[in-house]
Automatic annotation (TrEMBL):
Main localization, broad class: cytoplasm
2-(S-cysteinyl)pyruvic acid O-phosphothioketal modified-residue sites: C116
Residues at the active site: C116
Statement: the UniProt record of this protein carries the keyword Cell division: yes
Alphabetized SUPFAM superfamilies for the sequence: EPT/RTPC-like (SSF55205)
Catalytic activity of the protein: phosphoenolpyruvate + UDP-N-acetyl-alpha-D-glucosamine = UDP-N-acetyl-3-O-(1-carboxyvinyl)-alpha-D-glucosamine + phosphate
Name this polypeptide is given: UDP-N-acetylglucosamine 1-carboxyvinyltransferase
Annotated function: Cell wall formation. Adds enolpyruvyl to UDP-N-acetylglucosamine.
Alphabetic keyword roster: Cell cycle, Cell division, Cell shape, Cell wall biogenesis/degradation, Cytoplasm, Peptidoglycan synthesis, Pyruvate, Transferase
Protein species of origin: Paenibacillus puldeungensis
GO molecular function: UDP-N-acetylglucosamine 1-carboxyvinyltransferase activity
Length: 426
């Protein structure tokens, strides 16, 4: 297993370009199955989760090539609607294939998805939404079969604005007969990106970005070329790392409008931020101030995907901060690791009380999930001494070689890979 070795204490400085959004690219790759033919998707990040999705699409019969940040995919040859169990277990986002495969083939077989262990992560809202469009669901020996001779548009209200359920329903409804009105929909920027992609293929979807999305079904969709939006969570992770190391950095190819909640928290912590169209400059000097209370909640509130990273900054701040996690029930696994690095954090149910300390100290720590792993990298960059982050494969699911991003900004870190060591010896 790869490890990241970090020598902390260098303020980050310089300029970096932010890569495309994993959480936009994954549903868009799944949605490409709604049309038959060749298309080009640009700004697709090179990540483990994208490899898994491309692996599934290949097993379904598509031809896909990822060169640089461009994926060229031909969905015309797809001939299977059975998502392979081994790949389904590797990544929760494989669930995105339900809506498109059901709409295209009239049936889909999936398994309970795997993914980061950050909570129960049910799929009931996905299934209820597809049922409302006319699908019959049957669960048998771990398999979930979903069948519909035709899908018919209807009114659907989500009990919770689930990102994935909103996307699955949008994709299935795009080829349904009649109109679907989806209320209490998730409002994340990635949902707007999916709407734009579906419309570029000839769909009729409006309202993404608000809590009501209207999808007028069309008979068929056409292949198209499309560019994925920048990754707001990668941009947020970089900003927090700069703040924690008290550095000065410019991010390019990002969208400040997608990061309003984080930028507000950083400013409350006393950090200077300048933002224009697609550039953010951050200047951090001196100890950050504590932020009294942050609550994670669906967009546009503070994102759960930046909760663990911002906790590192609060762990170094002057004063007491409270972090409340309301989206996932198991998302404080990084706390024990941060405490091992000298942080003073106590957890009570879904609240973490963070008493800032003047410094963290390097230690050997374990990434338990994707964003927790990113938080430990930030802690290592800010800490005094050497940190080793283990279980790096979690981080590789969502960051394109995170060590290179921080090396470019002067961070002293490198990857140790047993596979590479063996090659050295040979
Ligand atoms: C997406 C993001 C993930 C982010 C999350 C919340 C992608 C690929 N992943 O995940 O990075 O952390 O949004 O912003 O876009 N729930 C149910 N039943 C369901 C579906 C969800 O109870 O059928 C619950 C979940 O257990 C969780 C909450 O709803 O507690 C949020 O989940 P959801 O918004 O669906 O997140 P994902 O789409 O899995």
């Amino acid at each position: 297993m790869d490890k990241l070795v970090i020598e902390g204490g260098t303020p980050l400085s310089g300029t970096i370009r932010i890569h495309g959004a994993k959480n936009a690219a994954l549903p868009i790759l799944a949605a490409s199955m709604l049309a038959e033919g060749k298309m080009q998707l640009r700004n697709v990040p090179r990540l483990l989760d994208i490899d898994v999705m491309l692996g599934i699409l290949a097993r379904l019969g598509c031809k896909a090539v990822h060169l640089g940040d461009v994926v060229t995919i031909d969905t015309g040859s797809a001939d299977s609607s059975h998502v392979p169990e081994d790949l389904m277990k590797q990544m929760r986002s494989s669930i995105f294939l339900m809506g498109p495969l059901l709409a295209r083939f009239g049936e889909v077989c999936i398994y309970q998805p795997g993914g980061c262990a950050i909570g129960e992560r049910k799929i009931d809202l996905h299934l209820k939404g597809l049922e409302a469009l006319g699908a019959k669901i049957e669960e048998k020996d771990q398999q979930i079969w979903c069948r519909a001779s035709k899908l018919v548009g209807t009114d659907i209200h989500l009990d919770f604005p689930s990102v994935g359920a909103t996307e699955n329903i949008m994709m299935a409804a795009a080829l349904a007969e009649g109109t679907t009105i989806l209320s209490n929909a998730a409002r994340e920027p990635e949902i707007q990106d999916l709407q734009n992609f579906l419309n570029a293929m000839g769909a009729s979807v409006i309202g993404a970005g608000t809590d009501t999305i209207t999808i007028r079904g069309v008979k068929r969709l056409q292949p198209c070329d499309y560019e994925i939006i920048p990754d707001r969570i990668v941009a947020g992770t970089a900003l927090i790392a700069v703040a924690a190391t008290r550095g000065t950095v410019t991010l390019t190819h990002c969208n400040p409008a997608h990061l309003v909640a984080l930028l507000h928290v950083l400013r409350r912590a006393g950090i200077q931020i300048g933002a224009t169209n697609d550039i953010i400059t951050i200047i951090s000097s001196g100890r950050p101030k504590a932020v009294e209370r942050i609550v994670t909640s669906p967009y546009p509130s503070f994102p759960t995907d930046l909760q663990s990273q911002i906790m590192v900054l609060l762990a170094l701040a002057d004063g007491l901060s409270l972090m409340k996690e309301t989206v996932f029930e198991g998302r404080f696994k990084h706390v024990d690791e941060l405490v091992r690095m000298g942080a003073d954090i106590s957890v009570d149910l879904n609240s973490a009380y963070i008493r800032g300390v003047p410094r963290l100290y390097g230690a050997t720590v374990e990434a338990t999930d994707l964003r927790a792993g990113a938080a430990l990298v930030i802690a290592g960059l800010a800490a005094q001494g050497k940190t080793i982050v283990e279980q790096v494969h979690h981080i590789d699911r969502g960051y394109d070689r995170i060590e290179m991003m921080f090396q470019r900004l002067g961070g002293a870190m490198h990857r140790e890979s047993p596979a590479l060591k063996q090659l050295d010896l040979a």
